[in-house]
């Protein structure tokens, strides 16, 4: 039988890029999947339809991760629709880049709300429902490990913060048999970071493997952490970054 048969997963930001690949992969591994989005309703519905075509239940929900009530509502809706929640994947994210001196308080609040507060409140809401064997997985970044260039202090701060969050939650939830981990992608070819974008050659130059990864590479790491083989893995970071942080 499939490794995630009978499980229910919530993936934030599942309409495009890495989140869409994670949602599809968890569905292929046997889970029913709820995926959220902020704007790309059509793409989110298409991902849900693909998962349904594979025989699983799937639901696309509009839920802006900048709004903590929307995040909590997505968790509660998952339980209401599919009867349980086993796996939470905090993936929704936005890139932030530019001169440190020009960064605004508004953008600080927004990036921290999406990358840090949303995973915190999702974990708190889900923890009321997660059974033994539950999983919380947050998508951080290789930039939470090593920044390597200017203009990314805010983004890196937010991605480093989730490492502390996962470690703390691993402590809080371990006695209940729930694991909490961070996946730290390197350059992955998505709308956020296209392999033919302006900054792509600079990133390739810093990569031992020399090329961008694919969204499916991150989905494979999430599938591992979500699956039974990772039962004894908690409070840690899994770098899937082509060697960027090495
Ligand atoms: P994309 O920009 O390609 O996709 C972002 C996804 O997040 C979309 O589904 C988008 O929804 C959703 N999203 C964005 N903002 C919100 C919000 N406020 N509320 C709900 N959903 C939201 O990004 P990637 O797939 O590349 O990135 C996914 C994650 O991986 C992010 O956390 C990112 O920081 C991280 N990451 C990416 C790397 C890369 O090189 N690509 C490297 C390291 C980390 P919608 O379609 O509705 O806008």
UniProtKB/TrEMBL annotation:
Record-listed E.C. numbers: 1.1.1.47
Alphabetic keyword roster: Oxidoreductase
One annotated GO molecular function: glucose 1-dehydrogenase [NAD(P)+] activity
InterPro entries recorded: KR_dom, NAD(P)-bd_dom_sf, SDR_fam
Keyword Oxidoreductase: yes
Domain Ketoreductase: 7-191
One Pfam entry name: adh_short_C2
Family, per entry: Belongs to the short-chain dehydrogenases/reductases (SDR) family.
Name of the molecule in the record: Glucose 1-dehydrogenase
Protein source organism: Lysobacter gummosus
């Amino acid at each position: 039988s499939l490794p995630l048969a009978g499980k229910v997963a919530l993936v934030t930001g599942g309409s495009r890029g890495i989140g869409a690949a994670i949602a599809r992969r968890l569905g292929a591994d046997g889970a029913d999947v709820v995926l959220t989005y902020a704007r790309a309703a059509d793409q989110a519905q298409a991902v849900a339809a693909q998962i349904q075509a594979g025989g699983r239940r799937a639901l696309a929900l509009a839920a802006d991760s900048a709004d903590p009530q929307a995040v909590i509502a997505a968790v509660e809706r998952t339980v209401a629709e599919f009867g349980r929640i086993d796996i939470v994947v905090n993936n929704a994210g936005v890139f932030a880049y530019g001169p440190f001196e020009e960064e605004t308080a508004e953008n600080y609040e927004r990036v921290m709300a999406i990358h840090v507060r949303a995973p915190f409140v999702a974990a708190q809401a889900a923890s009321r429902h997660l059974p033994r064997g539950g999983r919380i997985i947050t998508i951080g970044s290789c930039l939470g490990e090593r920044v390597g260039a200017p203009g990314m202090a805010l983004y890196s701060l937010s991605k480093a913060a989730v490492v502390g969050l996962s470690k703390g939650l691993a402590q809080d939830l371990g006695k209940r048999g729930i694991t909490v981990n961070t996946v730290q992608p390197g350059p992955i070819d998505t709308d956020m970071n296209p392999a033919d974008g302006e900054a792509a050659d600079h990133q390739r130059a810093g990569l031992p493997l020399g090329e961008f990864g694919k969204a499916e590479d991150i989905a494979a790491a999430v599938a591992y952490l979500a699956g039974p083989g990772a039962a004894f893995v908690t409070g840690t970071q899994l770098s899937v970054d082509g060697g960027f942080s090495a």
